[in-house]
């Protein structure tokens, strides 16, 4: 089964979740994990890659593309079923109740874009969201926005999360992924029912006022001219020992230089923990099908009829009640769907938020978009689908939520 979820035969049914509950799943034994950036210097090098050349890699990244056109050929009565009792994890700050109401939908600060290098060696992005964790350092998205089956690599390269990203702006900093967690069945068998991932991230970092590009420029100029005056006045460098300097040079993306027997590298400012800056959604699992959810994401691309409905530049939302869905072509038998006009590109990883509070901008993450479907055959996408979050989802989340990342600045 391919992770590029073709959904060539997605079947959607409006039935409710079966009332019976199965025995609790032993999800703790079904967790797979993989490192994304094992050291702080690796993480800084990854961040520098995205900020180099005046953020060209960020600006030129394209939405991660999957085949989304669906031809539903038959009806199935299948769908998700809870594997243990329903449960929720409160959102960060959710204990601060609010009675404020708004007629407008207040967009969550928790949602942003994840950027990575795909198997084609080009920069791409998906949607993702910050979720509750012990160290306020966890991101949730679709599994195929983290794990790579198109090549021999285990995970996508140079993986970062940027909440509130807009045309090169990073209002709360850039958060480099440290470790990815998913279900064993997704990592090994690419099971569409388990197409989700939780990623711990390092503290956010911010760069000097004019970024990596200017730092490189002034160092190169000094080497070329022999005049180090401008470099010595630049506040973006700090003196380090030779071992640290050598590590920076080895990574290749990080501005560093040696002069008069001393070693210098580019400074980074610590932007703090992700959850402290933007909050974190709660988590809901084993919930009844048929409840309304808000879906927040960055849809991009065209409908099958060629209509360019979304640009992917700004956060969008849709709203509807979930229903049971299956996708036989990817052996996905426990999906949930929601009526939505979101196109597939860019919206992958979109957050499905149950009981979203418009005043606090918080709710419970109850799904992530893994594909879209044209269920009535009119060449317009009308449905988004997500894995059903059950006890095994909670097991993967639990394996990730208590792991510390720390600062890399």
Automatic annotation (TrEMBL):
The keyword Signal applies. The keyword Signal applies. Residues 1-27 form the signal peptide. It comes from the Bacteria. Residues 78-104 are annotated as: Disordered. Keywords: Signal. This is Trypsin-like serine protease. It comes from Microbispora triticiradicis.
């Amino acid at each position: 089964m391919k992770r590029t979820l073709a959904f060539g035969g997605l079947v959607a049914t409006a039935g409710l979740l079966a009332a019976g509950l199965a025995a609790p799943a032993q999800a703790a034994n079904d967790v797979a994990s993989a490192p994304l950036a094992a050291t702080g210097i690796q993480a800084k090098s990854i961040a520098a890659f995205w900020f180099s050349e005046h953020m060209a890699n960020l600006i030129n990244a394209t939405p991660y593309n999957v085949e989304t056109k669906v031809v539903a050929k038959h009806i199935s009565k299948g769908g998700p079923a809870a594997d243990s009792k329903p449960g929720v994890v409160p959102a960060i700050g959710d204990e601060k109740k609010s009675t404020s109401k708004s007629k407008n939908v207040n967009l969550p600060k928790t949602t942003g874009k994840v950027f990575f290098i795909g198997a084609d060696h080009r920069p791409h992005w998906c949607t993702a969201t910050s979720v509750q964790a012990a160290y306020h350092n966890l991101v949730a998205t679709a599994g195929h926005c983290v794990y790579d089956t198109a090549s021999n690599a285990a995970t996508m390269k140079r993986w970062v999360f940027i909440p509130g990203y807009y045309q090169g702006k990073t209002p709360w900093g850039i958060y480099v992924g440290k470790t990815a967690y998913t279900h064993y069945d997704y990592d090994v068998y690419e099971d569409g029912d388990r197409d989700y991932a939780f990623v711990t991230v390092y503290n956010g970092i911010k760069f000097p006022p004019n970024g990596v590009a200017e730092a490189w420029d002034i160092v190169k100029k000094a080497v070329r001219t022999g005049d180090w005056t401008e470099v010595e006045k630049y506040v973006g460098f700090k003196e380090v020992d030779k071992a640290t300097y050598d590590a920076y040079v080895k990574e290749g993306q990080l501005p560093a230089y040696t002069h008069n027997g001393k070693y210098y590298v580019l400074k980074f400012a610590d932007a703090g923990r992700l959850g402290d800056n933007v909050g974190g959604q709660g988590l809901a699992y084993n919930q009844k099908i048929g409840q309304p959810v808000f879906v927040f994401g960055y849809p991009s691309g065209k409908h099958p009829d060629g209509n360019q409905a979304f640009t992917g530049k700004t956060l969008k939302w849709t709203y509807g009640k979930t229903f049971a869905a299956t996708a036989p072509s990817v052996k996905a038998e426990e999906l949930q769907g929601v009526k939505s006009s979101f196109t597939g590109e860019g919206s992958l990883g979109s957050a499905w938020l149950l009981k979203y509070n418009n005043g606090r901008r918080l709710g419970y993450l109850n799904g992530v978009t893994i594909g879209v479907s044209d269920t009535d055959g009119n060449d317009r996408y009308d449905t988004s689908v997500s894995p059903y979050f059950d006890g095994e989802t909670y097991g993967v989340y639990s394996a990730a939520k208590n792991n510390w990342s720390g600062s890399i600045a």
